[in-house]
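Hey,
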Amino acid sequence: MNKLITTIAATASLAVASVALPATANAGAVLDKVLQTKTLTAAVGTDWGKMAFLNDKHELDGYDIEVVKSIAKGLGVQAKFVTPSWDVVAAGKWEGRWDMTTWMTPTKARAEKFDFPAVYINDEVLGAVHKDSKVTKLSELEGKVVGVGSGTAAEQYANHKLAADWIGARPVEYQFKAGEVKTYASSNVAFDDLRLGDGVRLDAVLGDGSLVQDAIKAGYPLKEIGVAFDTPAAIAIAPGDKEFSDKIAAIVQGMKDDGSLSKLSIKWFGVDRSAK
């Protein structure tokens, strides 16, 4: 339990080390703080499926956790994790409370608030409905109530506002127009509403593919109805510290080159979803 408390400590504990850092860092400022404190602090979730979750020992575990630890090791520091809500992370204005986050789609709009040192995994967003639903494909969600995680690309897609402007993106094909889009702190919370029954609170959920599949494996009475879109997922940092960005980019590239990123992906997902 002590390890859990340390691992997901309140961001207030970072105040002394980070209070002077603005939302946009000066060149070298974040890297200097990380090296001086010998701590790399990453904002992650506790319910991101195999990306990041609390294991049986109540410790953070998963693909993202191991990637962050590898980056920290490459910097010669220790990894520390905080767990703010995703909408807070995606809003920017971190003010030095954490140094990086993971699993962010690197859109042009977000590039106005963040730097993206490295894309490290390829992601897909799936539609899911209750197993008793007669819906079999995404186009049949026309006019339905669809749940999404707040601040996610899935939310943008459901609202027909997704700017597919990342490298290699294909034009977005909106397969339905929802009657209502309900937002949740995470798509996992939306799954809890969907499991109550077809149409009780939701008709469907759009969420990360691994989260949908994990929910089904865990016994949730859901079924997949297709891929809405796929995206690259990147590591994000506050803008302005090129030295910090370059260090992360070099470490992740090294993981791609030596095959360790692929091995982590196969370990957690059974397939190589790592970005080349």
